[in-house]
Amino acid sequence: MPARYSPAMSSSSSRRLALVHTGGTIASRPDPHGAGVTPQQAPSLDAQISGLDDVQIVSFQPFTLPSPHVTPQHMLALQALLGSLEGVDGAVITHGTDTLEETAFFLHLTLQCPFPVVLTGSMRHTGELSWDGPGNLRDAAQTALHPQSVGRGPLVAFGGDLFDARTVTKVHTSAVDAFGGYPGPIGRIDQTGGQAALRYFAGPETRWLYAPTSLTAKVEVLYAYAGWQGEGYAEAEARADGLVIAALGTGNLPAELLPMIEATQKPVVIATRTHAGPILPVYGYAGGGATLKRAGAIPASFLNAHKARLLLLVLLSLGLEHAEVRRVFEEGRF
Question: Domain named REJ: which ranges (predicted)?
C-alpha cells in the first residue's frame, strides 16, 4: 500500500489532488507487437490536467488493468487506498469504462472520506486524434476540487456530465458520450474562457455506509429471457450465497421460476434487465412480481443487476441475515 499523503509533502497555499490510475482505455495505446489496444502506462499529467497550475498532484498506480479484469477485490483495495489519504482536497480515479460504474457504486457503499472522489476514463485511446481522455480528466479534477462536490459521495465525470454512482451506467459501447442513466446527470461542468463552470441540479443526499474488511461471499447474476425455464438456476444457487436475477419489466419471471425461488433459503434479489425503472411487485400471475415477493424474493428498487450484486455481496460478506438484507433493499439504504 502506498504511503499516506500528508500536508507536509506540498505547500499549504496550494490545493492538493490525489490522482489514482488503474488502467483502462485512458491509459491504453496500440500494442507494438500487434496484439491490439492494451493498458500500458498512466496518462501524461501535463497533457491531461491543464489549467490547474495551483494544484499539487500526488499520483498512485495500484494496478494497470483493462476494466473487465477488475474484481471486487481491486475495488476494496481502492477503497483502502483512498481511505488512507491525508491532506488532500480531492481525488480522481482513472478507470476503464466497462466496469467503471461498478467501482463507483462499490465506493459509494463503502468509502468514507472528507474529500470528493470522481471517477473518469475515456472511450478512445491515446493514439487517436479524438482522444477524449484529457478533457475528461480535466473535468474530473476540477469537479473533485470544487467545494460544491463535498458530501456527494463518489461521482462519475464523463463528457462534461456529472453522475451519481447509484444511477450512472454505460449506455453505448463506443460513443464518447457513453454514460447516462435515468434520471440523468446530477450536474454539468463546462469550460468557458479557460475557467470551469460547474453546476449541480440537486443537493447532496444521505448515504448509507458499510465497512467490509473482506469480501468472502459469492453472488451470481442470472438473466431472464422469453422461454426461460430456469436453466442454470439450480447450479448457481448451489454454489452462491445469494443470487440476483435481471428479470423482465418491473420484476417478472416465467412461471417455472416461482417454485425454485420458493424453495431456496438464500437471498434472491430481483432487478430488471430494462434500461431504467424500479422493481414494482404488481402482477399476481405465477412468476409476476407480486408472487415473487410473496415467495421471498427481494426487490432491488432502482438498482440494476450488477449494482444489486455488489450491494448483496457487501451485505452477505458482513454477515447480515436474510431479513436484514431485505430491509436494506426495501428501505433504500444505499
Answer: 1-66
Q: Are the CB atoms for 99 and 70 separated by under 8 Å?
A: yes
Strands 155-158, 117-120: pairing kind = parallel
Note whether 57 and 49 are within 8 A (CB): yes
Q: Tell me the pTM.
A: 0.93
pLDDT tens, position by position, 103-141: 999 999 999 999 999 999 999 998 898 999 999 999 999
pLDDT digits 0-9 by tens, 307-328: 999 999 999 999 999 999 999 9
What residues contact residue 302 under an 8 Å CB cut-off, 6+ apart? 166, 167, 276, 277, 278, 279
- In the chain, pLDDT over 70 holds for what percent of residues? 93
Q: How far apart are CA 241 and CA 267, in angstroms?
A: 8
Structural domains for the chain: 7-200 (3.40.50.1170), 219-330 (3.40.50.40)
| Active-site residue set | 25, 97
Q: Do 19 and 26 form a contact (C-beta atoms < 8 A)?
A: no
* Pair 210, 110: CB distance under 8 Å: yes
Residues making up the binding site for substrate: 67, 97-98
Q: What is the pLDDT of residues 72-83, one digit of tens each?
A: 999 999 999 999
Nearest-10 crossing angle of helices 100-110, 305-317: 40
Q: Cα(104)–Cα(108) distance, rounded to whole angstroms?
A: 6
Q: Which one, of 121, 77, 81, 88, lies nearest residue 14 by Cα?
A: 88
